[in-house]
Each structure stands twice: as structure tokens, then as C-alpha cells.
## 1
Amino acid sequence: MAMALLLTTQYLTKRFHAFTALDALTISIEEGEIFSLLGPNGAGKSTCIKLLTTLLKPSSGDAIIDGVSVVDHPFRIRRLIGYVPQMISVDGTLTGYENLLLFAKLYDLPSQEAKQRVNEYLGFMELQEAAHKPVRTYSGGMIRRLEIAQSMMHRPKMLFLDEPTTGLDPIGVQTVWQHILELKKQFNTTILLTTHIMDEADKLSDHVAFLSRGKLAAVGTPEELKKSVQSIDSSMEDVFIHYTKESPDSERGFHEVATERKTTRRLG
Ligand SMILES: Nc1ncnc2c1ncn2[C@@H]1O[C@H](COP(=O)(O)OP(=O)(O)OP(=O)(O)O)[C@@H](O)[C@H]1O
């Protein structure tokens, strides 16, 4: 059965002076699917997300989300999407409930509806018990789930998650994965995520795209990609190396530490 496409990019390109960070990317994402962008540090994943969330303007090309062009109608796009950046995006001094209520108000939800939705998402993310505690007392996994709930307050059709599990302990990773899959199941939310974790891409994604130096190196289902590298029992790591000619773990140490530090510093 043919699925409806929710997002298409057409030769989406971003140059920073002479350097091309994203080079004529053309991909399509079906409604209700989880799509992962993989690639080594500097491959252009965050740049791609920033273009699709209208934080950056393309140098050329376009992307269409639910029929709306990011180039022509950035304000309409912002109502259609939710975004969880790599950096912490909740306030550590407020409670989980207060953080969500703030966002509900930002999106102009009437007071009664705002409270209902906050409670609905706290329940969905299994954060009711901690709802009235300051967020700085939350674990990394709880913070991530709260951030995802926050990005959902206006019921966006599409969510962008930039490295949703970086810096989390194994239990945090599992609960975040479980809730990302539930979002797709219960709300039919279309999700584009970036990740360095091959297992994450393999377990969550309907389709995976590999970027290498700003260019699309491969796209397909995890199964198709594993078959395409033609070794018996090939893993997503093998696929990564095959298409990007780099190791998935290159330079991870510093990157992970830096991200964790950013988290700690921001929450005080
Ligand atoms: N504002 C900017 N000015 C100049 N160069 C930039 C800018 N933003 C990104 N770049 C460069 O563009 C390239 C792609 O960066 P990007 O952050 O998109 O990579 P990434 O795949 O998300 O990497 P990571 O896995 O480290 O997050 C990098 O070489 C980066 O240095």
C-alpha cells in the first residue's frame, strides 16, 4: 500500500561561505514513520535538522512538510513541527508541570485545555509522580521525556529529535526508545531523529539515511541496508563503515562528554 509522504526535500543545500555542509539532499519521509539520519561528526545532520525546523535558511533547494515550504512559509512550518535540540531545552528550576504549562501557554492553548494536555503528556511520558518536583532533580532519561512532551504541546504532525539519547545511561536510553515508539503508535507522529548509536537506528527506524560530508550516501530500511553491504550477519555498524568510510565511534568520546557537560551546566 502506498503511504502518504509528509516531508520531502528537494536538493536541500546549505553553504557556510565556501564550505558546503549539506549538499543537494533529496529525501522523502512517509507519514507516521520514524526516519533516522546517521553519519560521522560534521556530516551535516544537525544542519539538516536546523534547515527543516527553519532555524537556518537553505542556500538553495527547499523542503516541503505537509504541503508547506520551509523557504516560503517558515512561520506555518513552526506550527506544524516540534523540535528537541541537542542542548537542554527545559528549565531546571521549574517543575515538570510548570515547564509544560509554559509551553502550552506559548502555543495559546486556553487555560483549561492547557492543564488537561499537560496532565495527558505527563501521564504519557510516565512523569506524573515527579510532576511537581524541580526538573534539576530528574534523571537524564526523565528530562529527555519531558523535553519530548514539551515539543508535543501543540500536537505537531512531525517531531525532530537531535540525538535524543546522547549522554543517557542504559535505563534512560531504554525508556526514551520505548516512548518514541509509543508516540508513533498512539499519535501517528512522524519522527526524524539523528543518532550516533547504530542500535538505536536499527531498533527504532522504518528508514535510515546515511550522510557523509554533506551528501546522501545511502537510504533504505535497516534490513535493506544491511543486505546491501552483502556480508552475512552484517550489522548497522558495517553499513555505516561501508557507506561513510568511517567508524561510528570516531571522536565520540569528546562529543559525548561535551554534551553531558552542557546538560549539567545548564541545570545547575
Ligand atoms: N554556522 C556555521 N558556520 C560554519 N560552519 C558550520 C556552521 N554550522 C555547521 N558548520 C559546519 O558544517 C559541518 C556540518 O555540521 P553539523 O553540525 O551539521 O554536523 P553533524 O553531522 O550534526 O555533526 P555532529 O554529529 O558532530 O553533531 C561541520 O563541518 C561544521 O563545522
Note: The mean pLDDT is 90.
## 2
Amino acid sequence: MADQDAQSPVGIDPPALPVLRWAEPPEGPALVLLDQTRLPAEEAELVCTDVPALVRAIRTLAVRGAPLLGIAGAYGVALAAARGEDVASAAELLERARPTAVNLGYGVRRAERAYRQAIGKGADPERAAAVALAEARALHWEDAEASGHMACHGLALLDELLPGGGGHRLLTHCNTGALVSGGEGTAFAVVLAAHRGRRLRQLWVDETRPLLQGARLTAYEAARNGMPYSLLTDNAAGSLFAAGEVDAVLIGADRIAADGSVANKVGSYPLAVLAKYHHVPFIVVAPTTTVDLGTADGASIIVEQRPGVEVTELTSPRAGVAGEDAVGLPVAPVGTAAYNPAFDVTPPELITAIVTEEGAVSPVTGVGLAELCARSSQVTIS
Ligand SMILES: CSC[C@@H](O)[C@@H](O)C(=O)COP(=O)(O)O
């Protein structure tokens, strides 16, 4: 049996600060972020008054997670427009800030297109900036709505796959909750729905080396919501499966290729292999905005490579990023080379289901992803 003694405290106060908010003058124009690099130690705001500051916040993971990156990118375009700057160059800078999460480019292009169309119809730059901001707000709201639908579809699927009455023991990786979303998240929103429906027996939280999104952020969200949860090191997952303590794995996604391959936080693929071996459902939860039908397969997904110092030192995500102070504690000899991909790719044959706001599909059989995307009311950007 896995050690269940160390149940974490419940009922911690909710954060006083929103994950992301737009500030009008005189405070702005600015995009104000809950700085995720400082959680759980403190809830601090990071005020981005221009696009370079926002790009830095994206690269250092002060703002992160696929859906929230899309929302932040859209507000970033609105910020450039509100400052009277060159919107096309700002959009390019933002889109290039991180390569794997497809939502970032989606949000950026959506706001930029709205701005361009307004200008094309004769709007002055000030009016077009308001249009870009309205588009960012629409995306923000749509993501919240999608999150609610994913929670419903995901919980229904869990109940179908795990009919026993003892409550679900779920394992998750990285952070997929309110910190990455306009709403309550993707995979974590399903866990939360299970918890509210009194069907969550245990949440297993992978710490998610090297930047500890699981330990720092998912544990923080689980505690705030009063869930029964325990943290494990990523390499303890195997023994947990072997002990029969995991009923299902739930993760998010940064990009889903047309063949159903899923790029997500590094460490997801080994979990999928473990789940397959132990006959445990492996479920991906993501909005249709994370599906990239223009990318044919997993091999075509660009995986972000992060600085090696994130592996060779125990530190905050800020270390190793140009212009930021590296304050890490070395855990390897100076000069040690490191392999540090931010994501890995799980092939469709290891995935039980992909849950979107439009419903669930099996990536290898049944209704295809393309059909779900066609059904979605999300704005299409070519
Ligand atoms: C709903 S979030 C899905 C993914 O974006 C999440 O699992 C993840 O991998 C985030 O990676 P991060 O590098 O922290 O941005």
C-alpha cells in the first residue's frame, strides 16, 4: 500500500488576486499577472506595461499553461495596440515567446486579426485597439466556458470508466487548474468536479521536475480546494501504479496533432506507458483550441528546449533566462550538461480518450478530432 498518512491540510484561503487582469489607465494600459514563479510562497502581482515585459513573463513562466498563454497573448496584442505600437511586430514577438503551446499563437493571431480587420474597415487605431481588447476578453470568457464543459464531459467519462463506488484515485502531472485558464482549468477542472461530486478519493500530484509545477502550483490549488491529495516525486509514480493505487491519469495538453498525438509537460509520456502496462485509463483534457489539425503527427510537433541550469540547479524558473538573476542551488558539478525538454509527446495508442468542451473522443477509434473541432464554436484562425 502506498503511504496515505500524509494527507495535506485543507481549507486554505483562496488567493486574493486574479490569475490575469487587464488594467485601464491610470494603472494601465497593462496586463497584470499573478506571478506564478512566486507561488506558493507568495501571491504577488507582476505588472506588464509593454510587450517585452509580457514576453519575459511568458518565457520565465510567470504566466504559463496552454489556455492561459493564449489569453495572455491576445491581451498582449491589445496592449501593443493600446500603446499605439506596431501590432504586427508585437504579435510576432509574442507568438515566438514559446513554441509548443498552440494556444499562444491562436490567441495572438485572433486578436491581431480583429485589430487588422477593424483598421481595414476604416477604424482609427484607438477604436481598433478597443476591438483587439474585446477579442481578448471574448477569448478569456470562452475559455472559462470551455473549462466548465470539459469538467462535465470529463467527470461523465470517469464515472463510465470507473463504475466502482469507492471514489476515484486520480493521478495528475504538471498544473492544469485555474492558474492556466479563464475558468477552473482542463484536467484539474475534472478533478475538481469529482471532488465537488464527492467522488474524489485521492489526488496524486506528480511534483513535475524540473520547475515543480505540480508541487508548487497543483498542490497549492488542491489545498485551496480542500481536496484529499498527496505529492509524489515523478519517479515514484511506477511504484504507485504497481501498488494498484491509481484508477486513472488525467493530464492537459499543449498541442494535439491531427493524428491524436499529445504534447504535454515532460513526464507525461512515461506516465502513459505506465498506465498502459497497468491497464489504467490515460485521459487528456484540453479545449479544441489546443487541437492543431495543421500538424499531422507527433513527430512534427516542435518541443521547447529549456536552459540546462533548470536541471543542474534547484531554483526558480527565472534562473538562466537572459536578464534575470540566477539564484539556484547547484545539484550537479559546475559545467554539467543537461537535457531539458519542456514537453514530451504521447502517441495516440497510449491515450484512452481526449476530452474537449465538445465531448470526448478516442484518438484511435470513434469520432475524430476534426469532427469535434468542426462542431466547436471557437473562432477558426488559419
Ligand atoms: C491546461 S494546461 C496544459 C499544459 O499547458 C500543461 O500541462 C503544461 O504542460 C504546462 O507547461 P508549462 O511549461 O508550465 O507552461
Note: The first helix runs from residue 51 to 59.
